[in-house]
Amino acid sequence: MTGVKINQLSWSFGEQEIFKELSLMIQPNAFTGIIGPNGSGKTTLLKQISASLKPKRNTVFIGEEDVLSFTARNLAQKIALVSQNNNIEYDFSVEDIILMGRNPYIGRFEQESTEDIYIARKAMEMTGVLSLKDRLVTQLSGGERQRVIIARALAQQSEIILLDEPISNLDIKHQVEILHMTKALVKEQGITVICVLHDLNLAAYFCDDLILLDHGRIFRQGTPVEVLEPETIQKVYGLGVTVLQNPVTGSPCIIPDYQ
Question: What are 6's strand-pairing partners?
Answer without folding.
Answer: 24, 60
